[in-house]
Amino acid sequence: VNSERILYAYNTLSQVFEVISQHWKSEPTPGNFENASRIFYEYDTMGNRTLLSSQKWVLQTNTWQTDNETASTYDTNGKVISFESRNYVNEIQISGYRKEYFYNASGQDEEQLSYNYLPGVGEWRPLSRDLQYFNPDGTVDYFKRFNWNEAAQSWDLYSRTLHEYQNIIHPEEPSVSTTQTWDDSTLTWNNLLKGISLYTDFGTVVLLDVGQQIWNPLTAAYEHFWAFKYYLSKIFTPADLTSPPVDVSCQLANPVISGASVTCASLPPGETIFARLTDLAGRTLFCQKISNDGAFTMPQYLPTGLYILTLTAEQSGVIFKEKLVVK
Predict the structure, then answer these.
(1) pLDDT per residue over 26-40, tens digit each?
(2) What is the largest CA-CA distance in the chain?
(3) Secondary structure (H, E, C), 291-326
């Protein structure tokens, strides 16, 4: 018995631009599918997804009505310069979140501005400002956060997060991140949180310690809030932990959005190549063969977080590896 069907529509670049979910209509006249929900996509000329709109079907008017949508804009290098998340009721925006990204001459994300949407006045109000400071090797040394002071119409210093790097397996990831809040009355930094992410290599097994500690001002010490230990079997060769020797480039934004289109160049000719996305615990969330033109699509509905994108060729092995932030 029919229950549900999903329809896909593609543009001339083989990108999905519409996904419609339909339910089987059994009453009063059986034998038809009825629209239920739709996801609609738009792309720019570089293939970057600029809009994802989730809509529901309204029987009374036989029209699609927007529930929520995300929109992004990109620079000429494919980097995200703005991102918006918008929620609607009866096609009227009731809430939203906006983020703007600014990059330095090296292409590093050095500043982010966040905004909240005010439905009463129909405008975006500043929320926070993040500034990142980098080490000579390109890793983040620390970042500062400022909160918007509406009364003073200025940014107030709120917190900073300091990074330490000791990881053996992933040296680009901070092993300790210490967050401190700023006290205007004493003009000092006060400890707040400490995040831990440590790898220990035991040969065939890697131990990952992750956790968070909270500062106790009464004892002037950090106390454990939560902690986990993961024992991970090595499923990659040692070469996978180093930079791939093949000069492969992939055109994608970072942070990236679920369902984004990715195009890679300089792939080894005549080889079958697979794209694999894993989380930091090494679990494979997505694996897809790349088409001949070097294109593939990221999976839909990925939770916000940190992932590793790896391209592996039959003969050459790992040819591309990059840490991605999914938002």
Answers:
(1) 666 666 788 889 999
(2) 74
(3) CCCCEEECCCCCCCEEEEEEEEECCCEEEEEEEEEE
